């Protein structure tokens, strides 16, 4: 009996086109990805490495889940749907035969479809080099183990779980919608793990919550060396094993329960509905019907539309599964919203901007699937319920029937787009957070989410009409949507006007809302809505009313219907779509240049090929800079008039200059005459910019100086530059030119060829015909390196006048000489001439709330202290105030006088996303400590700590500035971190410094673990974790040993020796080491030499061999 | 009103010829469609009900071209399909109110009276608040009847409407239909020949997509006057009789076979004349197309 049913199932599947469609889809997709190298394997990791295969198989198992839902949901449901119960119940079929025959027969096909992926990968790795899409060297050995190990450890267990779950649920609930809800819940598990992977490092949740193990694979492979990734399979141990056991067990339990509870009778009979009222006596004989007034014109359409919409909405909201899916999603979202982002183990306030960003970023996939499912249900509702023959013979015309369904789905979309507010507001209130950002809720809902969901509705609806088969249309819609997501996420193809429903990227922020991106996003939304409507018109041509029809009949009908109103409507909508598309094209590809990711790299490569010859050219150094910068935040425009005095500090005369315009519109004058220039490099036009010139000048210009600048001579130039953003672009642009929170360094073009701009990835270099590149270590005694600054430039005398719009305040380096209003604009004049400053200096303007105070230092000086912050972000103001005051007092006593007259801490926009220290001005971005929820007293006061680090930069980075040799950046990264630790150590609460040490230790341990080149002696450090975490911990260990005051004395001496040098040599790591060495007791010389000059074998330790605190996070 | 069907033909993509040159003229009153399973009754009714296209021919309701001007027809139509489902989560009353709106009954008070009246007529008034998903087969069928009668239809098409109804309900429904038939065209398809003879002023017999006969039941029966003979025969002799006589029906009663044959004159051999009925008409026509022997 089993074999017959099993074979029946096999034969049935072999006749179904769906099987072949799924197989070919996955096969083709895998082949494409691996042949084209779109897997995104890092450099030196071959495309078909076991690591890539594991990750790919885990990722595709999400798609296979959908396949398994379509396949495993039907074998039992089929018998219900086709009403075969009468004879099944009468046949001599055993329960075991029926149950296992159906289960295994279908599961077999799920596994076979999964094999299509392996086949695709294998063939892809063969065809990639054959067709020259990828060099042969990008592929490694194709060992069977690499293919089948992940197949059997990742794909098969996952599929067993999902298949058993779906099979069991249909058997238990006799309904296919239960599959949607459970499938979506599994996806939520994945998203949850993904969220934790990126926000809160909770390994247990990352590994266990994700039934697909994608995040687990990701986490297990992060930090491995290319060598390991190319050869090692993921061992089935620990949390990986637990994940597999967990989900396979869940599948087995579901299957066992299903089997145990399964009974033919119950399954086929379902809930019995008895006609209990059959015996009620009939009322009196009915007479005929009284005629009623009917109205089938005019307001009829409106009323009908309303009535149909109402019934459709009732159908949706009276469905328990709808609420089940929604509740699941909402619980998940509440959890994410409640926990929010963490920094240093401290939760942020539950901010609206985080809610809308995280919703639009990760949760829209879930919403999209809800829309996909409910569009299918809605389009086919009459057919599914059997109401079609009645409904389709009713008077409303096709357009009314379709419009009502679309309107209902748009109502659903509107409701779903309110989700962030529905979940967010309660979370905010429950956490006692009242700074609810209503405008951002509003903007995000109506500018981003709702139109996007409407576009999805129209897309899914049209596909349902055209495909006319619910499940097949799901497959088509999800495949197209996923494909677009994949190509854009992996940066394979990102031309937004060709990616349906995609819009330019934006971060919502408290300071600027969604700011200037509102306009481009709005245009794109109109454009996609028009596109969706065009799709709907096309789809409606295929609308099947009445009996099911063959494809040929539908095509004939479609061509018949394409006349009169349909043709006019189609024409009008197509025209609208094309006009909007034309306008977007005009902005993206005509006013601006759009380049594909490949073209971007190609241009970088062309620059390197043609301009690297200028790399060794001597460059003049700016010694005096006087400029007027006019900022127009509302118009995203900046205009600069600068006078530069430059000096030739080289030993060669300078007769020509290579200038990098960096997107600026500028000219350079000398003695009132604009200097002529030639363009040394032209680029071929981007292939998406059809109407732009075929040759685009690069940003580089070659100037011949009117008279050569002799060594030691100076010269004056005038630079006039304009930064403007005409139209809008393919994605986010002008991220620093915000309406509120503009940030600029003054818009001066750069000089010389910058090797830092070269492509670093050697695989990409190879693709573009460039030789391999390896980081070059400049030894500590290299004379050019010692005489230049790592950041370029030199000490300059700085005079700056800035104007901005009336309601905004400006902050920049230097003492504020004057602040005034003129012609409705707000002017500021800053001067920093003694001792001058090392570039870059930055300028910020926004509508700030300002806190000002003075701090009297023990050398008798009074320093102006100011904090400029977004008015809403005052929660941690006191912590920043304390940090600035404590830091100023302590650091100036320890490291020498504070070099400037004033110190400002400024909140910068969400796009800057970190801390920046410029002379006298510290910038800390909005999502940083400003929004930390530190109401819990035991938490780490990280705003204090991070501000202290940045404040220490005023000495270590602004006063003493590192030269361009190996290890020198310790001076402006390790030393300020040490300084902040020393400051924290003075606080009465000793847990604070301990937490900072824990985080540094964690950074160090993580860096050390993932450093495949091997850690170097500290004095030769060149990687982030060595330069800050290791150096800071090493210095702290020394301070603990000899006393912080003694260490500070040494650092003070170092500072005195190197402060504000106007020319080389500048300080390097050896100089720091030598100074330290000279200030420590004799007994520690060996220890210090070992600690700094030997390759470390473990975490930093103090001389007493007491190990530094271990990592804990 | 008058419904004129001319040379209507339809062949399905799988080659089944559902309708072949069907021509009929229907006036107000009840019109019965008789025919075996697969005869094309439902295809014909669905075509008139605007649910499917024809390959050739025409259908006119007065001067409305049914095949082209579907919306106009739908405004005049009441249709009860042979098989149908309902939205399980909507109540009977709510759904009927919805259908009434779609049929253009726009005055709320009038609509409420109409819905209540109909629910009363089909004996569902007490269950009107229940969701349709909880209805039994018979209740659902009665709801289907109610919806077909909303909005004063001028053309009512009911496809085997009494399936699943008990005899009392069936009578109630037929009474209602005959009443309506005074001012409207009612097309009724059924397997039950007796229903046609008692209810319909005109009828047609359809088999394999062709109209074999159309006319009034009485006239049809009259044509067979004196031509029907019957006899009781042993069961195992049926093949011998079959070879000789045009058997139009057989009936097994208590182990003996009663056969009825068509004959121009008395066949003798123990056959006795029998009064013709509509069933004889039906079987005599069907027998020209297919084997009607039921044993």
In whole angstroms, the N-to-C terminal distance of chain A is 58 Å
Through-space gap between termini of chain B: 44 Å
Largest interface: A-B, 52 and 64 residues
Q: What is the CATH topology of the largest domain in chain B? A: Rossmann fold
Largest sheet of chain B: 6 strands, mixed
What is the CATH homology-level superfamily of the largest domain in chain B? Answer: P-loop containing nucleotide triphosphate hydrolases
Q: How many strands of chain B?
A: 14
Strand residue percentage of chain B: 25-35%
Q: What is the overall pLDDT average of chain B? A: 89
| Quaternary structure classification | heterodimer
The ordered string of helix (H) and strand (E) elements of chain B is EEEHEEHEHHHEHEHEEHEHEEEH
Q: For the record, what CATH class of the largest domain in chain B applies? A: Alpha Beta
Protein name (chain A): Peptidase M1 membrane alanine aminopeptidase domain-containing protein
Region (Disordered) (chain A): 1092-1113
InterPro entries (chain A): Peptidase_M4/M1_CTD_sf
Biased composition (Low complexity) (chain A): 1103-1113
Helices and strands, with pairings:
The complex is a heterodimer of chains A (1113) and B (295).
Chain A: H1 2-15, H2 17-36, H3 50-72, H4 74-81, H5 85-90, H6 95-130, H7 144-173, H8 177-198, H9 203-208, H10 214-221, H11 226-231, H12 238-261, H13 264-269, H14 299-317, H15 320-339, E1 342-343, E2 346-347, H16 352-379, H17 381-385, H18 388-392, H19 398-417, H20 419-430, H21 438-467, H22 470-489, H23 518-541, H24 551-561, H25 564-591, H26 597-611, E3 621-632, E4 637-647, E5 654-660, E6 665-670, E7 673-674, E8 677-678, E9 682-684, E10 695-697, E11 700-709, E12 714-724, E13 742-744, E14 750-751, H27 762-767, H28 783-787, E15 796-805, E16 809-812, E17 815-822, E18 825-837, E19 843-846, E20 849-856, E21 862-869, H29 877-895, E22 902-908, E23 915-918, E24 921-925, H30 942-953, H31 974-985, H32 990-1009, H33 1024-1042, H34 1044-1058, H35 1069-1079, H36 1085-1093
Parallel strand pairs in A: 3-15, 21-22, 22-24
Antiparallel strand pairs in A: 1-2, 3-4, 4-12, 5-11, 5-14, 6-7, 6-12, 8-11, 9-10, 13-19, 15-18, 16-19, 17-18, 20-21, 23-24
Helix pairs in contact in A: 1-6, 2-6, 3-6, 3-7, 3-8, 3-10, 6-7, 7-8, 7-12, 8-10, 8-15, 8-16, 14-19, 15-16, 15-20, 16-19, 16-20, 16-21, 16-22, 19-21, 21-22, 21-23, 23-25, 29-30, 30-31, 31-32, 31-33, 32-33, 33-34, 34-35
Chain B: E1 2-11, E2 17-27, E3 29-34, H1 41-48, E4 56-61, E5 64-65, H2 70-76, E6 77-80, H3 92-102, H4 108-121, H5 137-148, E7 155-159, H6 167-181, E8 185-190, H7 193-199, E9 202-207, E10 210-215, H8 217-223, E11 228-233, H9 238-244, E12 247-253, E13 256-262, E14 272-273, H10 278-286
Parallel strand pairs in B: 3-8, 3-9, 6-7, 7-8
Antiparallel strand pairs in B: 1-2, 1-4, 4-5, 9-10, 11-13, 11-14, 12-13
InterPro entries (chain B): AAA+_ATPase, ABC_transporter-like_ATP-bd, P-loop_NTPase
Family (chain B): Belongs to the ABC transporter superfamily.
Keywords (chain B): ATP-binding, Nucleotide-binding, Transport
